[in-house]
Structures are given as structure tokens and as C-alpha cells.
Amino acid sequence: MTQTSRFARLSRTLAAALALSLLATACGDDDDTTAQTADETTGTEDASTSDPEAAPNTEPASEDPVRIGVIASLTGPGAVIGVPFTDAAKIAVEKVNDEGGVLDGRPLELDIRDDETKPDVAVQLFEGLARDDVAWVMGPNLSATCYAVEPLAEQLDQPTYCWSSANMPDEHSDMYFGTSFDFTQLAEGHMQDFADMGIERFAMLTSTDASGKLYLETMTEAAEEAGIEITGTSEFEQTETDLTGTIAGLRSGEPQAYFIGTSGKPAAIALKNMQDLQIQEPVFIGFGNGSYVFAELVGSNIPDRTYVRMAKMVDLDAIAEDDPMLPKIEEFIEAWESEYDTKADPVSSGPWDVVFIIAEAIESAGGTDDPEAMVEAMEAMTYDGANCTYEFGPERHRGAEEGCVALTRLQGDGTFVAVDAADEG
Description:
- The chain has helices at residues 3-7, 10-23, 79-98, 119-131, 143-155, 183-197, 210-226, 244-251, 265-276, 292-298, 326-340, 349-365, 371-379, 421-424, and strands spanning 66-72, 108-114, 136-138, 160-162, 176-178, 201-207, 229-236, 258-261, 283-285, 306-311, 382-384, 389-391, 405-410, 416-418.
- By secondary structure, the chain is of the alpha/beta class.
- The strands form three sheets. A seven-stranded mixed sheet has the order 7-6-8-9-10-13-14, with helices on both faces.
- Strand 3, helix 5 (143-155) and strand 4 (160-162) form a beta-alpha-beta unit.
- The longest helix is centred in the N-terminal third of the chain and has 20 residues, at 79-98.
- The radius of gyration is 21 Å and the shape is globular.
- Residues 1-61 have low confidence and may be disordered.
């Protein structure tokens, strides 16, 4: 598709996309836990301040960088995920460039923009990046923001790789991919954990945003399929600061376990309130909390038996020496710890993989001029990454294979320990 036709429909589609974004439940505006703001990232001018009538770029010289847009929550509640995800992308791009870049020496360059954990802002940023002619957009990192931009991927002919585990829309764009495992896969895994631990009934506490609603929907469906009883459910706004009464209400149903379907600061509040109530039953938390950033946020304010499913790299000793993922995991750990001098964050291995997947798709397509060629190249790809093994296809735009997730127990000292659910009952 030509550059002219790519944006010819922009004026009439942007309004529709903005309307769709408002249907996705936005997170709150404020969060004092973020370690990084948009001003501390590298990138070009925010699209919201750029000239909307600026002419598109001409064909780049061979040594010019290949620009990859990044939309992430660098401020607001989603920053607990968005910041480490963006940090992972930065070091992945550095490694690609150190190894020669793409297309005979062209470096990758990130254009990083903060969506403030707001779907409407994500839509505006996406439109700006597409207008600025980036080769791909990576992100956003939350369900609500990913669902908000997904319609634009098709309308603007913009290849996009969402960083969230949000389930693919039933009629998703051919230009839209999603990272790693989805909510349905994770919910089915939790049902197996429950069965292995002898749990026959559980209660759910979920946020009212898009991620919380997905947790509620997929966990309910998986429980019905597995024959496991849900003793009670309760939804809460992410701005709430005390969930003690809500949790006490769920407790009256005498569940054998609890599931917290949200990420970041709201999940931390729920865990602290459960600890205050001296909850003794196992507590399972959403996949997005499987990070050392979250572990630092909650500290020791957690029930004794707190579990999260996360990337299997958390337990290197359990990975076979001939596992094709092992070299990629070791590369990620070395790059992260060298750059940031902290323990490598397992949940961030997904965005790290996405950079290499996109680079390979660009190489296979022979350039960035044809979005459909890059998408078709990705659809033909199998890739062993640090987060998972991916096998893409025209009907497999997530690509993640089974067996990439481990059940872990979050310790009060901020560490995660891989466990066998059968031994935890």
C-alpha cells in the first residue's frame, strides 16, 4: 500500500478509534511507584505536539536507522509493567545493532512515547507514530490500551506487536500481533494448579479495567470447564486504596483459594489487605505481577502462600541443557544485568523477544516499504526466544507454544521460587 493511501482514511477513522478506546476501561492517572518517566527515555518528539500535516519521510538511505515506535505506560498505574518492558526493548535494540543491525547495516532506533496508562492517549500516540512512518509499533503494555489501538493497525496499515497478554479480538487486524501467552492459556494453567493442589473452590477479586474483566471472563470459563466452583467474585476500581471489606466479604464464602485479577499497585494493595486479614489460603495473582519490580513494590506485605505464573526462565536449574530457549535466556540475563545492575526481570523477556522477532521479519521481507510483506514474513516464522518458543501463522498471531510458563511462589524477600503445584497442596 502506498504512503498516500495509507493515511487517506485517517481523518474519518481516528474519531472511530477514539470512541472505541473510551469503551476500554482506563486505569487511574496517578502512581507514585514508577521508576522512570517519559522525560527519562530516549525518543523523538511526542506525536501530540508534532505537525499533523507534516509530509511523510522519503525513502531512507541505506545507512539510515529503521525506526520502531514504542507506546508504553511510563507513568500511571501501568508503569510498574511499562517501564521494565521498555527497558528490555532498549537493550534488545542495542544487541541487534551491536551485531550489525538489519538490512545490510541499518541500525534499529526506538521512538518511545508514554501513554500515561490511558487508552485515549495511546490512540493519539499510535496515530502519530503511524504518520511518522515507523516500520513497526511495539506496545502498548496493557489490555485496555492494546484494545484501543488494535482497530488502527488495520485502518492505518501499521504493523503492530502488542506487549499485553490480552486475548486477541475475534476479528483482529491482519497487522496486529500479541506477545507471549494469553489470558485463556494462563487461566487454564491455573485450573490445573488448583486441581494439583486439591482446590475445589476459589474466590475472585478483579479490577474493573479491561485486564480485570478479561481475568474474570477467562477464569470463569476455565473454572466451568474444569468443574471448579467459584464461591464469590468482586470487582473494584483501581483507585481504591483499601479492599479489606471486599476481601472479608469474599472470605465468608469459605473459598480454598483466592485469585487477584489485576496488576501493579492495585494488586499490591489487595495482597497487603489479605495479609492484614491473616488469609491462610493460597492466593494467586495475575501474570503481569511476575516481575521483580512488583516484588519490590509489595515487599513483605503478602500472604505466606502467594503464587504467580511467570516465564520459566525464573528457574534456570529446571531448564534442560538442550532446550533451544536456554541460550536466549542466558543472553537476556547477561544483557539486563550488565546494563541495569539488577536481577533480570522474567516478565520483561517478552518485549526483549519481540525486538528480535521484528528484526527477523524485516530482514526476511527485505525492507520496510511493504507492511504486508513484513507481516507475511512474521507469519512464516518460528522463533526460540527467552520468554517462549513462538510458532506463528496466518491464524496464529500470538505464536506462543505450550510449556513456557512456570508456577512460582512469591517470597517475602522479593524472590520467586519455581514450585510444583502438587507439592504445594
